[in-house]
Specification:
Shape of chain A: rod-shaped
Largest interface: A-B, 32 and 31 residues
Number of strands of chain B: 0
Oligomer: heterodimer
Number of strands of chain A: 12
CATH topology of the largest domain in chain A: Thrombin, subunit H
Strand content of chain A: 15-25%
Strand order of the largest sheet of chain A: 1-2-5-4-3-12
CATH class of the largest domain in chain A: Mainly Beta
Order of helices and strands of chain B: HHHHHHHH
Structural class of chain B: mainly alpha
Strand content of chain B: under 5%
Radius of gyration of chain B: 16 Å
Number of helices of chain B: 8
């Protein structure tokens, strides 16, 4: 473009007679070269004064120091990259290791729970076996299949051996005491009403004093109640109640519960006595059914008194 | 890459120049100061070839060069001269450079950088009688090989709001 402008000038044509676009382009080119000349000259001067005369050395030194410190502060070093990489890889490996430990711990916890459950089951079965071996009564083992979840109805459904003589009203016991009574039998399945059911009742006797009374299920509140005991009767917290054996159908002395509170009511002439069941009503899977005759003591009460 | 329809964002240009200034002044970790890339030169070259709207002013370029010289402790005026010449060459090449194949662009950039480094080395030889360090000249010129990276990064960084 500049060549064209020069050609126009050489031809003697007036500069202002050129087409406007060409004039603008030529002017901008000239401005560019003019600026370039100025800045190149300035730069060469600066280079000369700096290299030859050392004019800018003090300023350069000061600024260079500041820039060095700023650069050091802002720019990450090799060490920083290495440390960061090492930190990331270390963190990653730690996270993976931690996950592995957590998984292992979960498995171990589950295994421990299984072992604990098995130990408890074995202990319970050993206790039942001991009871079975020293008992003069005929007994049959039953295994719980289902249990009701309702707080107002405490029943179990249990399976027993084929041809076992399980009948209505038979007592269900575990190694610690009375659990319930057979409510119905169909095939090898028996429905058991727990003594904590609000409709259950057991005729009992306080082991310490011989005082008789009827124990009822606590229903939704759980536990047991000894009702119709007149105020002034000799009942203390900690007294053990056992089956009375009245009627001859069931044996005497099966632990039913322990007195946990004795309260008098102003509106009633009877005590309100609460008991804790001796048996583990809701914990075990295996129980025994008393199916035989009734005579001697089944449980050793010496330790309970 | 459409060069003519898109309105360039001044903020993006400014930020890219600031980033280039930082890299050119401070360098990159793990690289000796003499081996550091002069990214700012490539950035100036890129914006200058795009057109008038994105072209940095010569005075600005000169001052940027001064800043780099002071921060790196080099001879004052060296980078100013380099950037001013690069800007002029870029303006002269203009859109023809942008439309040429990438390999040709790289070759041209490397040649320009090589020529400028030799020129600057010539000033050092004239004023201080120190011979040209061929190794550092070649290294500086070889940084022109990263031109496609710089161009790709800047290409994604300008606004397309004016493309309607």
């Amino acid at each position: 473009m500049l060549g064209h402008a020069e050609a126009w000038l050489r031809a003697g044509v007036s500069f202002y007679a050129m087409p406007s676009a060409t004039v603008t382009s030529a002017r901008s080119k000239m401005q560019l070269y003019a600026s370039l000349s100025v800045y190149v000259g300035l730069a060469i001067c600066l280079i000369f004064f700096d290299l030859k005369k050392q004019t800018f050395s003090p300023i350069k030194e000061g600024i260079s120091n500041v820039a060095y410190f700023v650069g050091e502060a802002l720019s990450p070093s090799d060490d920083w990259f290495l440390q960061f990489g090492s930190h990331l890889s270390y963190k990653l490996s730690l996270t993976q290791e931690n996950e592995a430990y957590k998984q292992g711990q979960l498995l171990k916890d589950a295994q421990l729970q299984i072992i604990g459950s098995l130990e408890r089951q074995v202990e319970e079965l050993q206790a039942l076996l001991g009871l079975y071996q020293r008992s003069p009564y005929s007994m049959q083992a039953v295994t719980v299949i289902t249990a009701t979840d309702s707080p107002y109805e405490h029943t179990l459904m249990a399976r027993f051996a084929e041809n076992a003589p399980v009948d209505l009203g038979d007592y269900i016991i575990d190694a610690h005491g009375l659990v319930g009574q057979v409510l119905s039998v169909e095939g090898v399945i028996a429905v058991i009403r727990l003594i904590s059911d609000r409709r259950a009742s057991v005729h009992t006797q306080i082991l310490r004093t011989g005082l008789r009374g009827v124990v009822f299920g606590g229903g939704a509140r759980g536990g047991l109640k000894l009702k119709f005991v007149p105020e002034g009767a000799d009942v203390l917290v900690g007294d053990v109640l056992v089956t009375s054996g009245l009627g001859g159908q069931h044996p005497f002395g099966i632990p039913v519960g322990t007195v946990v509170s004795v309260d008098g009511e102003e509106t009633s002439t009877f005590y309100q006595i609460l008991l804790k069941p001796s048996a583990n009503l809701h914990a075990n899977e295996d129980f025994l059914v008393l199916t035989g005759a009734v005579r001697a003591d089944l449980f050793d009460h010496d330790q309970k008194e | 890459m459409s060069l003519f329809l898109h309105k360039l964002s001044n903020a993006k240009i400014a930020w890219s120049i600031v980033l280039g200034l930082f890299i050119s002044s401070v360098g990159l970790p793990g690289l000796a100061a003499t081996m550091a890339p002069d990214v700012l030169a490539l950035i100036i070259f890129y914006w200058a070839t795009l057109g008038v709207s994105s072209r940095p002013k010569m005075g600005t370029v000169f001052l940027l060069g001064l800043f780099v010289d002071f921060s790196t402790g080099g001879a004052i005026g060296m980078h100013s001269l380099k950037y001013v010449l690069m800007l002029t060459i870029a303006i002269q090449l203009g859109n023809r450079f942008q439309m040429s194949p990438v390999l040709k662009q790289i070759a041209l950039i490397v040649l320009v950088l090589l020529a400028l480094e030799i020129l600057l080395g010539g000033f050092v030889w004239i004023f201080l009688k120190i011979p040209l360090d061929i190794k550092s000249v070649i290294v500086a010129a070889m940084w022109g090989l990263v031109w496609p990276l710089v161009a790709a990064a800047l290409d994604k960084n300008y606004s397309r709001t004016g493309a309607k």
